Amino acid sequence: MGRVIAVANQKGGVGKTTTSVNLAAALARFEKKVLLIDMDPQGNSTVSLGIEKDDLQTSVLEVLVGESKIKEAILETHVENLFLMGSNSDLTAAEVALIDDDKGSLKLKKAIKKLKGEYDAIIIDCPPTLNMLTLNALAAADGLLVPVQCEYFALEGLSALMDTIQAVQQSLNSELTIDGLLRTMHDRRNNLANDVSNQLVEHFGMKVLQTIIPRNVRLAEAPSHGESILEYDIGSNGAVAYLALANELMRRTQI
Hints:
Elements: E1 3-7, H1 16-29, E2 34-38, H2 44-48, H3 60-64, E3 74-76, E4 82-85, H4 93-99, H5 107-113, E5 121-125, H6 132-140, E6 143-149, H7 154-171, E7 177-186, H8 191-204, E8 208-214, H9 217-221, H10 229-232, H11 237-253
Parallel strand pairs: 1-5, 1-6, 2-4, 2-5, 6-7, 7-8
Antiparallel strand pairs: 3-4
């Protein structure tokens, strides 16, 4: 089994989907076979790869509730080596079904095990809330990648997230580790962003990745074209940063 990485932060708007899609595409560019799982009912990762979320015949929902085998829900994308298990608003229906199930938080982990060693990496894009979908991702993951926007409340939000991680380690997944904290949407000209960046390093040390994702217009534009930044503008600062992130994670985790 390849490494399963959940991209999560309970705070919204920090670049989880941008990171999930572009990290997956960057790993694929390095000739890794990658599966991206969209665990967010908004389906933004799905749309970002040019797939119509409302046209999905089989999605994450069917896999979680046992109506479909995981291999039946996996789609090829236009990116070589990159595959997708998509989602849409129907996924919200999984919440009730999973809550009523004693082992509802382990459904994704059980499904992923059936893929055996088919992928070098599995990236899970989590919703911006601590719900059963996020718990499924954390229970299934080997590592956690936490995008952090360098703004005033960043450290406060991380404190709550660290408490969540500890609880998950104690109850669902004792082997879950933090693969890294990723500084996103960073503007080096902004003094507050630089101060928060330095505080992150001071508090979390080596857990903070060296790679920093800059605030980049091309990154924001790419999803509307149904492309990762590597297809949309390979020469942009955003593309260079995500290639660097993939390289750093490959070194850290032996993907």
